[in-house]
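With this grant's support, the team has encoded backbone shapes as discrete tokens. A representative record is reproduced below.
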Amino acid sequence: MIAAKVINSIWSTRKADSLVGLKFMLVEVLGGLDAGRLVIAADTISAGIGERVLICLGSSARKMLGREDVPIDAVIVGIIDEDCEL
């Protein structure tokens, strides 16, 4: 898993049928070699802009949705408590 901060919502009115109903957020990776990298992640937990979140990438992200046929590379899976320091 990777720590990230939610930067903004991503709006897409036209998308593949398998993505309909998914909410997407732009997140910025916190710390490590990829610090500052921007990633679009499906939001499964209703994270808000400005929140620090946990994301998983790759096949783990698809498994979080319970479907292997969805073209997803990143999913928000948790919100980091405010009292935790990174």
